[in-house]
Design brief:
The longest helix has 17 residues, at 290-306. The protein has a seven-stranded antiparallel sheet with strand order 15-12-14-13-17-18-16, sandwiched between helices. A five-stranded antiparallel sheet has the order 5-6-10-8-9. A four-stranded mixed sheet has the order 1-2-4-3. The protein is an alpha+beta fold. Helix 1 runs antiparallel to helix 3 (53-65), helix 8 (233-245) runs antiparallel to helix 13 and helix 13 (352-366) packs antiparallel against helix 14 (396-409). It is 34% helix and 21% strand. The two termini are 27 Å apart. It has helices spanning 3-13, 22-25, 53-65, 118-126, 144-149, 157-160, 195-199, 233-245, 258-267, 290-306, 318-329, 331-335, 352-366, 396-409, 428-431, 434-447; strands at 18-19, 46-48, 70-73, 90-93, 100-104, 109-113, 131-132, 167-173, 179-183, 208-215, 217-218, 222-230, 252-257, 279-287, 311-315, 339-343, 369-375, 380-386. A hairpin with a 4-residue loop joins strand 5 and strand 6 (109-113). It is globular.
């Protein structure tokens, strides 16, 4: 790494907050993207740990003037290569910007810096009787800034939507160094173009989010879990659509192939309560009143039975609920050593059955295991290509091509929550026209005329 750059970074943030030693830099240069598809990592980088938006502004002004690449890094939990350095880069770690500024119970908002982790927020509201933050993408090491620019989702998106639906306002530093503010605590704001929503989901290529105002929600007093098993996915999908038509909106509806969930249970020495059927639907429900909770159970089970459910199980105790959640949360870790690529396509619910049938045909054609789990309530399915050693099979390219062509045939999106990153760039042309892609590139150019912020990502 250029010594002049290191000295300049030390001038801006202080010597203690600049890391250039290769051994210490390495862990900041990549994220959790699967090894088989992860871009080649460049470790010739310098890590800078600013304490304010003003320090980041100075870093960006210097980098822009000298046309030097910059990448902001949060918790490094990305699965799409968005936080992988692919060239010599100034890596801005947000770890020092970790202050929770305010919980406003009147406007139901939480204001915090971008380096606050999801765990920090969970712990904050574990001590609060009536409020909480609903978004939970899974890894509690994720930082708020990263969750914003990746538009994080997770299991609770059925009822609460994704990160975009929770961000009221934000502060960000542009690639040219200016600090901007977009949105706020207002319920209505119809002035100007919506810069806030351009930055949300931008994958760190338009600006560095430094502060966020989030919407928080009232806690329901009663939360329960329900497991329903089916012989096939088409019956499970039909049940979900009928549940929505009935007016019920659970907190979460998860779809799991039986082989995947039993593997996860065995891996952590726990017991999954159902051994019948081939697929499971896992519902998390919450209500203000206990009677309403049990009425919801009865309605869901009734609809599932009308759609050929073979077994149902209500987790009545907190221990049983915790067991279900712990096993479900372990599905991906239990097969991680076999995952070649984790595709997280999103398709409209009316096309879910067609999509799942297509995945089975691809599996049958190539004989490579494709494990399917996902957030069926919002159509976001996770199809993991598995091999014993997590190395690409010879037919990998053909499998991926067929999966993404199936996604588009089902009127879907190539990613529902993991993002495009540096892994899915070439697939964008399947989903968007040349004109649409050029519009996105033009927006990037307005924000970042020298293309210094996370180059090679998202577009």
């Amino acid at each position: 790494m250029n010594e002049n750059i290191i000295r300049k970074m030390q001038e801006i943030v202080g010597e203690d907050w600049v890391v250039s030693d290769l051994d210490k830099v390495s862990s900041y240069c990549e994220d959790e993207t699967e090894k088989a598809v992860k871009p080649k990592v460049c470790r010739d980088c310098v890590v800078v740990k600013p304490a304010s938006a003003e320090e980041i502004s100075e870093i960006m002004k210097y980098a822009n003037e000298n046309k030097y690449p910059v990448m902001a890094r949060g918790g490094g939990t990305s699965l799409s290569g968005a936080a992988v350095a692919i060239m010599p880069t100034i890596i801005i770690s947000m770890e020092r910007m970790n202050k929770i500024i305010e919980v406003d119970e009147t406007s139901l908002t939480l204001e915090c810096e971008a380096g606050v982790t999801l765990l920090d927020i969970v712990e904050l509201f574990s001590k609060h009787d009536s409020l909480y933050f609903p978004i939970h993408p899974g890894d509690e090491g994720a930082q708020v800034g990263g969750m914003v620019v990746m538009n994080a989702g997770g299991v609770r998106a059925v009822r609460y939507g994704v990160m975009r639906d929770q961000v009221k306002g934000l502060e960000a530093v542009l690639p040219t160094g200016e600090i901007i503010h977009a949105g706020g605590k207002l319920i209505k704001n119809n002035a100007g173009l919506d810069l806030k929503n351009l930055l949300i989901g931008s994958e760190g290529i338009l600006g560095i989010v430094t502060k966020v105002t989030l919407s928080i929600k009232p806690k329901d007093k009663h939360i329960g879990s329900l497991l329903v098993s089916f012989e096939n996915d088409s019956d499970a999908v039909k049940a979900v659509t009928e549940i929505f038509k009935s007016g019920i909106k659970p907190l979460a509806i998860e779809y799991m192939e039986k082989t995947a969930i039993l593997r996860a249970a065995e891996d952590i020495g726990m017991t999954w309560p159902s051994n019948v059927g081939n697929v499971d639907l896992y519902f998390i429900v919450s209500e203000r009143k206990e009677d309403d909770l049990y009425e919801m159970y009865e309605t869901i089970v009734g609809i599932c039975e009308e759609n050929n459910a073979v077994e149902s199980f209500v987790a009545e105790s907190s221990k049983e609920q915790k067991t279900l959640l712990e096993i479900r949360s372990h599905v991906y870790p239990s097969m991680h050593k076999m995952v070649v690529d984790a595709i997280d396509a999103a398709v409209p619910i009316n096309n879910l059955a067609k999509y799942m049938e297509g995945i089975k045909k691809i599996h049958g054609k190539y004989g490579v295991e494709i494990s399917t789990i996902g957030h069926i309530g919002d159509g976001n399915m996770h199809n993991s290509i598995l091999t014993e050693d997590a190395e690409k099979p010879e037919c990998y390219d053909e499998i991926v091509d067929e999966i993404f062509n199936l996604v588009i045939e089902c009127e879907g999106a190539i990613t529902g929550e993991h993002g495009v990153g540096k892994v899915r760039n070439e697939r964008l042309k399947l989903q968007f026209t040349e004109k649409e892609l050029n519009l996105m590139k033009a927006i990037k150019n307005v924000f970042d005329p020298n293309n210094i912020l996370n180059p090679g990502t998202a577009l």
